[in-house]
């Protein structure tokens, strides 16, 4: 099976009230952990590469790893560019065989966002590739761009119909209070998402797939393992999973998860090396790291996304 786009995945997910996990990938062990879990649970998935991932691993390695995972598992997998910064980056991923790209024009003015998104849609659609756009700005760190909580802004529902109709995007990322990274809320702050905005957006765009970025839950058991083994992540707080379950039942068809994978992976490495300080074979400490990725993705598919047996 070749790479697939997200069109059919989203149609089914929307109709049946679940979401597809979009997991960020950076190396072989992460790809293997995610896809082994998804294959065992017959779940469709999206594997996505950020600018940081492409710089670290090179796009060709990421694409070949994903192709290997498809050959190994037979799963329908979409390869997606996460947070494409401009037309050139999106074009190069389309040219390099990605099946989906995100053009993140959310930091531009409304008109500039429409212009660059429209340009990407024209090129991508001509090559059979689907496009995710973004309206509203999330707080947090993505690549080296740090958007402070004061500069973050919720999506304005009265802009979504015009944005979607003038750009032709296939899905839309919105800002309802999630943020990138492992420190999403201050200690003592009650995590809250603007479900009223999500509801209003979906009322204005019936049947249209919505994307939630910054959706890691920051699994406290992994934070504890990291802290118990020399780390310092005391105030790491994520999105409660019951909120993600609720979003998945609504118009949200794609839920982006990166920080949770990083925590699971790092917990595996730290725990192993603390217990075995004289070991130095990367295969030894990467084995529990990969297993943690698999366990985490299994949990997300079964208990949060609801995408098991939907492949
Ligand atoms: O949305 C951002 C992702 O977490 C990617 O971050 O560029 O450091 O890989 P990265
Ligand atoms: P997290 O940092 O919450 O995992 O968000 C990832 C993301 O949105 C990637 O685009
Ligand atoms: Zn994101």
What's this entry about, in short?
The protein is α/β, with parallel strands linked by helices.
Shape: globular
The H-and-E topology, N to C, reads as: HEHEHHEHEHEEEHEEHEHHEHH
Q: Can you tell me the residue ranges where pLDDT is under 50 for at least 5 consecutive residues?
A: none
Radius of gyration from the CA trace? 18 Å
End-to-end distance, in Å? 12 Å
Q: Quick check: average pLDDT?
A: 96
Number of strands: 11
Oligomerization status of the protein chains: single chain
Strand content: 15-25%
**Ligands and ions found:** glyceraldehyde-3-phosphate, 1,3-dihydroxyacetonephosphate, zinc ion
**Main sheet: strands, sense, barrel:** 8 strands, parallel, barrel
Approximately how much helix is present in the residues?
Answer: 40-55%
Total number of helical segments? 12
Describe the strand arrangement of the main beta sheet, using strand numbers: 1-2-3-4-5-8-10-11
Estimated structural class: alpha/beta
Describe it:
The protein is an alpha/beta fold and about 300 residues long. It has helices at about 5-15, 30-40, 50-55, 60-75, 85-95, 110-125, 160-165, 195-205, 220-230, 240-250, 260-275, 280-305, and strands spanning about 20-25, 45-50, 75-85, 100-105, 130-135, 140, 145, 170-175, 180, 210, 250-255. An eight-stranded parallel barrel has the order 1-2-3-4-5-8-10-11, surrounded by ten helices. A three-stranded mixed beta sheet has the order 7-6-9, with no helix packed on it. α6 (about 110-125) links the parallel β4 (about 100-105) and β5 (about 130-135). α3 (about 50-55) packs across α4 (about 60-75). About 50% of the residues are buried. The model has no long low-confidence stretch (mean pLDDT about 95). 1,3-dihydroxyacetonephosphate binds next to β3, β11 and α11. The site of glyceraldehyde-3-phosphate has 11 residues, from α3 and β3.
């Amino acid at each position: 099976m070749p790479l697939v786009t997200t069109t059919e995945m989203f149609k089914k997910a929307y109709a049946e009230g679940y979401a597809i996990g979009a997991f960020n990938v950076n190396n072989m062990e992460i790809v293997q952990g995610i896809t082994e879990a998804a294959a065992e649970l017959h779940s469709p998935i999206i594997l996505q590469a950020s600018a940081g991932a492409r710089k670290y691993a090179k796009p060709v390695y990421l694409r070949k790893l994903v192709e290997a995972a498809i050959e190994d598992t037979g799963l329908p997998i979409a390869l997606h560019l996460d947070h494409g910064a401009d037309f050139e980056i999106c074009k190069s991923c389309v040219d390099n065989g990605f099946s989906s790209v995100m053009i993140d024009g959310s930091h531009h003015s409304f008109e500039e966002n429409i212009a660059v998104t429209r340009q990407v849609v024209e090129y991508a659609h001509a090559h059979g590739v689907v496009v995710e756009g973004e309206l509203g700005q999330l707080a947090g760190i993505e690549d080296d761009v740090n958007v402070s909580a004061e500069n973050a802004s919720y999506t304005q529902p009265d802009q979504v119909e015009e944005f979607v109709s003038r750009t032709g995007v296939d899905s839309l990322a919105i800002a309802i209070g999630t943020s990138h990274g492992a420190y999403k809320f201050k200690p003592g702050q009650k995590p809250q998402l603007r479900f009223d905005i999500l509801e209003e957006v979906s009322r204005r765009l019936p049947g249209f797939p919505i994307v939630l970025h910054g959706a890691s839950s920051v699994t406290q058991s992994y934070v504890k393992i990291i802290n118990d083994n020399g780390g310092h992540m005391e105030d790491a707080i994520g999105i409660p999973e019951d909120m993600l379950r609720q979003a998945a039942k609504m118009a949200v068809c794609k839920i982006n998860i990166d920080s949770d994978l990083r925590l699971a992976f790092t917990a595996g490495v730290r725990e192993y090396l603390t217990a075995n300080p004289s070991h130095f074979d990367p295969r030894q400490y990467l084995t529990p790291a990969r297993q943690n990725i698999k366990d985490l993705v299994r949990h997300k598919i079964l208990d949060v996304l609801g995408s098991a047996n939907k492949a």
